[in-house]
Amino acid sequence: MLNERGAAVVEARDVTVAIGGRPVLRANDLTVHEGEFLALMGANGSGKSTLVRALTGLRPLTSGSVSLFGTTLSDFHEHQRIGFVPQRATATGGVPASVREVVASGRLTRRKVLRPMNRADRRAIADALDVVGLADRAGDGISTLSGGQQQRVLIARALAGEPELFFLDEPTAGVDLPNQQALADALRTLSERGATVVLVAHELGPLASLVDRAVVLRDGRVDYDGPPLSEEAVHTHHHESAASHDHAPHVASPLDSLEGGR
Amino acid sequence: MNVIDLLGLDFMHRALLAALFTGLAAPAIGTFLVQKRLALLGDGIGHIAVTGVALGLLTGTSPTWTAVIVAIIGAVVIEVIREQGHTNGDVALALLFYGGLAGGVLITGLDGQGASSLQSYLFGSVTSISANDVWFTLALAVVILVVTLGLLPQLFSVASDPEFAKAAGMRVRAYNILVAVLAAVTVTVAMRTVGLLLVSALMVVPVATSQQLARSFRTTLTGAMGVGVVAAVGGLLLSAALSVHATVAPGPTIVLLALTMFASTWPLGVWLRHRRRLRAPFPAVPPLDEASHSHEMTPEDHAHIHGHDCGHPAVRHGDHVDYVHDGHRHAPHGEHYDEH
User: From the CA of A84, how many Å to the nearest CA of chain B?
Assistant: First the structure.
């Protein structure tokens, strides 16, 4: 999957993020080039999810800077060029929604307000469903799908905006093997189309063959940056202490903001 | 006087128009609140609006307008508290709700009228509304419908996954405040029909009814609007018909009718979901080791022949069909059935 090294699409300099006053990421540099398939790895609580959220602008930086496609994040408005796939927990709401509706919401980056969908929109949505292999489930309610299928729907949603750069936050967490394989197939298609992929993962599983660069975070700092490592190397590389971050959903009051999680 | 005579009266025409538009607008915005898991927000805004009504009564201005203004301020404050995400945000909201209700009752007392003048706002008085009120209700309902239906894709995206919407460059805060303001406007629109204490019912119960049968957000929304109209107009007519015999208030009749519709669709929804679960395909999991994969047959005495109408659910399993038979999964294989 080694694509030609193209221009830098993500440039993070000295990225420092503090949550509630506690530094979670400390002075990290990261450059991602066009066409790369990068895996951000590390133990729970190492800051890998926070880094991806900082890169997408969801988590404000305490200091440092992030540029996407050569534009600083605060001036970046070409959101149709990036596709974000959050962790699965957010796929269902209080009202039923069909798979097609969820995927269509990813197309909003390219649609004007108060305009109906045009043919290109419909085609992009159908194509996105095809890539993740769920075209036959388009009319079904999202809550009737298995966890792994819901995760594939979220990938299709990001795909519907036809972005060039993907950020995926732990797409394989809690997903069964056949679905992990389907995910890997979808991501392979994306990568072959020339997309740049930044993927947060605890374990790579079937995705391992796609990754052409691994970045391992340890305790809020980039600890390794280079060719992909074997599973054991990632897990023995850093001498994990017992005090790790709990990855289970936080028990919070119903009106707690999203900031409360992770 | 019978019901037909009643329908010929001007006040009844006005009441029917108000009920129709409230029944359309309240579930439209309610769907987004339910999607955001804020089903009780309407109730909270209703409590705050009591203060607005009382201020109107005290100062001699239109209670509807003061209620709109106070409800909007309250809704925006609630949204800000929610966004800031205080650990006990729900407690902060509760404080605001009760503050609104207590403030309203206190201010009415200052006016020397006692809480009785609040009555028509707390429980609605759709049959006593003026022509001006009808136009006001109509205009606000049209605004609510145009915005919710026009911005449906955006509002759906923000309500279902604010994080994704933010990463996609949408103005999440602006849309959230828009929904809160629209909810406040809806509360004041529905105030005359069902009353402030029951307003949330007309925003939430039709949605709960509609989602028993719907699979998509859009059908839930349109279904809820249908249920809302039937409940509001039907409840009004029902209370008019019954009022020949006894005093039947329209507000509670509307809400009870909506609840009846929910109660009658709920078993159907349970059955549909049950059936859907039974028919969900079994995962096609490859065996760990092809060689050791046993080929287990059903016992010789399996005389029953599975088919389209044998009564045993046929469930897709990979490239074939399994019949669910007494807790077993029977897959046709030549002359016999395999245990899957």
Answer: 7
- A256 and B87 within 8 Å at the Cβ level: the answer is yes
- Separation between Cα atoms, residue B96 and residue B89, nearest integer Å: 11
Residues of B in contact with A139 (CB under 8 A): 215-216
- Distance, in Å, from the CA atom of B39 to the CA atom of B61, rounded to the nearest integer, reads 31
Instruction: Identify which of A6, A75, A78, A77 has the alpha carbon closest to the alpha carbon of residue A35.
Output: A6
Q: What is the phi/psi pair of residue B325, to 5°?
A: -135, 110
Contacts of B282 in chain A (CB under 8 A): none
Model confidence over B118-177: pLDDT tens digits?
888 888 888 888 888 889 889 989 999 999 999 999 999 999 998 899 999 999 999 999
Residue among A114, A252, A256 whose CB faces B150 most closely: A114
Cα angle for residues A119, A122, A126 (degrees, 5° grid): 140
CB contact under 8 A, B217 and A253: no
Give the ipTM: 0.84
> A112 exposed, middle or buried (CB, 10 Å; 0-12, 13-18, 19+)?
exposed
| A258 contacts B215? CB cut-off 8 A | no
Closest Cα in chain A to B158:
A105
Instruction: Please return the burial class of A2, using the count of CB atoms within 10 Å of its CB with bins 0-12, 13-18 and 19+.
Output: exposed
Residue range A81-132, pLDDT digits in tens: 999 999 876 557 889 999 999 999 999 999 988 888 999 999 999 999 999 9
What domains are there in chain A, each with its CATH number? 8-91+163-243 (3.40.50.300)
The nearest CA of chain A is from the CA of B164 a distance in Å of 7
d(CA B37, CA B119): 30
| Cβ–Cβ below 8 Å for A146 and B283 | yes
How many other C-beta atoms are found inside a 10 Å radius of the C-beta of residue B337? 22
Position A248 pLDDT exceeds 60: no
pLDDT band of A235, cuts 50, 70, 90: low
Please give the pLDDT value at position B37: 87
In angstroms, what separates the C-alpha of A232 from chain B's closest C-alpha? 23
Burial class of residue A72 in the structure, from the number of CB atoms within 10 Å of its CB (0-12 exposed, 13-18 middle, 19+ buried): exposed
CA-CA-CA-CA dihedral for A141, A142, A143, A148, to nearest 10? 140
- Decide if B14 contacts B23 (C-beta within 8 A): no
Contact A139 B37 (CB under 8 A): no
Would you call B36 an interface residue with chain A, using a CB distance cutoff of 8 Å?
yes
Residue to test with chain B: of A95, A108, A159, most B Cβ within 10 A: A95
